[in-house]
Amino acid sequence: MALDSVIKATFFWGCSNSKPHPQLGSHSLLIGNLRNDFLRRCCYLAVLAQKATIPVEDEKPLLHSPNPAAAHDHDALLLNHSNGFHKDINMLPKPLTATDVSSLASDGSKVRVAYQGLPGAYSEDAALKAYPECETVPCDEFEAAFKAVELWLVDKAVLPIENSVGGSIHRNYDLLLRHRLHIVGEVQLHVNHCLLGLPGVTKEELKSVVSHPQALAQCEMVLNDLGVDKIGAHDTAAAAQTVAINCVRHTGAIASTRAAKVYGLDVLAERIQDDDVNITRFLVLAREPIIPGTDRHYKTSIVFSIEEGPGVLFKALSVFSMRDINLSKIESRPLKQRPLRVVDDSNEGSAKYFDYLFYIDFEASMAEPRAQYALAQLQEIARFLRVLGCYAIDTVV
C-alpha cells in the first residue's frame, strides 16, 4: 500500500521555469539531486502523469469510391440485408461507442482488451498477439477505446499508431494527449491483406471490392489487374461483414484471414498488398504506468513543445545525442488551440509559422540514469514536457 501511494504521488509532469504554456497552464516540478537520490528519481521519472487536456478535432476516415457506379453499389451493399445473413454474425459482440459505453459481463478471469473495429479486425489480431488469452472488446471509434479503459470497462486498449506503408495515425497521437492513459507496451503486426469472397466464388467473378481506403490503396496493383471497382468501408472487418450480410456474389472484400473465419468467407488470395513488408505498430494503453527495468530493451515515448528561437529544436534533440540515446521516432503535430505564431523576421513585415508539439520515441529505459539526465536537461529547454510511457520493445513481428 505504501508503494502504491508513492507511485501515485510521483507522477512525472512538468513545465520549465520559462513563461507558462498558454494551453497547458502553469505547473512546476521540483527535481532533487540526481546523483544522491537515484532510486526515488527512477520512480519519480518513470511513473507518468496525465494532466494535460488538449482538445482535438474528430478525424474519421473518408469513404472512397472512384466512380458513381461503384458508389451506387456501395449504397446497395450497405442497405441490402438478404436471407444469406451469416448465422454467427448476430452472436458477435457489438462495438462499444464513445457515448454509450456499458460494462459487459465478465468473471474477471481474463484480461479485457479494447480495440477499434469489428471482430476480425487487424487490431483484434494485435490484441491477441499481446494477450493471447484475453477477452477482446470491439469499439466503434478510437476514442471509445480510450474511454473504455478510463471508465474501467476494460483493462487495456491496443490501438494502431503507425504503418510502414501508410505512415502515422495522427488521430491517436492527438488522443494520447487528450486522455489520461499510459503506454505500457507495443505490438508489431505483419499485415496480410487477403481477398475474401462468398463460399464458392472465384476472384475472376468479382466486379467490386470493398475495404478500408488505406487497404484498397495498399493492394492497388492486384485490384487493377482484376479490373474491379473499389468501394470504401469504415474498416476491413466491416467490409468482410458487409459481404457476408449481403451475399452479393460479385462483391469481395480485403481483410484478414481471421475476418474470413469470423464471417464465413473464403480466402480467394493471400498477401495481395503491393509491398510485402507491411507492418503496423500498435500501442498498448493502460490506466497505470509500469515500473521499467533494465533487464531488456526498453523504449520511452515523450511529447514536448519548445520556445521560439533559432536552434532550440537542435538543442532539445542534442540532449539524447550526447548521451548515446537513439531516437527511433520523431513526429510533429501542430498545436490545436494556437497553431500559428507571428514573427517579424523580414523587411516586408511579419511572417506566420506553425507552433508544434514534438512526439519522440527513444531507446532507453527510465530506470537508466542517462535517460533521467536527458529528460532533466530537456525540461530546462522545453516549454512543456510529458512522458507518455516507458515500455519493452516488441522485437517479434
UniProtKB/TrEMBL annotation:
<keyword id="KW-0057">Aromatic amino acid biosynthesis</keyword>
<dbReference type="GO" id="GO:0009570">
    <property type="term" value="C:chloroplast stroma"/>
</dbReference>
<dbReference type="InterPro" id="IPR018528">
    <property type="entry name" value="Preph_deHydtase_CS"/>
</dbReference>
<feature type="domain" description="Prephenate dehydratase">
    <location>
        <begin position="112"/>
        <end position="287"/>
    </location>
</feature>
<dbReference type="InterPro" id="IPR045865">
    <property type="entry name" value="ACT-like_dom_sf"/>
</dbReference>
<dbReference type="GO" id="GO:0047769">
    <property type="term" value="F:arogenate dehydratase activity"/>
</dbReference>
<keyword id="KW-0584">Phenylalanine biosynthesis</keyword>
<keyword id="KW-0150">Chloroplast</keyword>
<keyword id="KW-0809">Transit peptide</keyword>
<keyword id="KW-0028">Amino-acid biosynthesis</keyword>
<keyword id="KW-0456">Lyase</keyword>
<dbReference type="InterPro" id="IPR001086">
    <property type="entry name" value="Preph_deHydtase"/>
</dbReference>
<keyword id="KW-0934">Plastid</keyword>
<feature type="domain" description="ACT">
    <location>
        <begin position="301"/>
        <end position="392"/>
    </location>
</feature>
<dbReference type="Pfam" id="PF00800">
    <property type="entry name" value="PDT"/>
</dbReference>
<protein>
    <recommendedName>
        <fullName>Arogenate dehydratase</fullName>
        <ecNumber>4.2.1.91</ecNumber>
    </recommendedName>
</protein>
<dbReference type="GO" id="GO:0009094">
    <property type="term" value="P:L-phenylalanine biosynthetic process"/>
</dbReference>
<dbReference type="GO" id="GO:0004664">
    <property type="term" value="F:prephenate dehydratase activity"/>
</dbReference>
<comment type="function">
    <text>Converts the prephenate produced from the shikimate-chorismate pathway into phenylalanine.</text>
</comment>
<dbReference type="InterPro" id="IPR002912">
    <property type="entry name" value="ACT_dom"/>
</dbReference>
<comment type="pathway">
    <text>Amino-acid biosynthesis; L-phenylalanine biosynthesis; L-phenylalanine from L-arogenate: step 1/1.</text>
</comment>
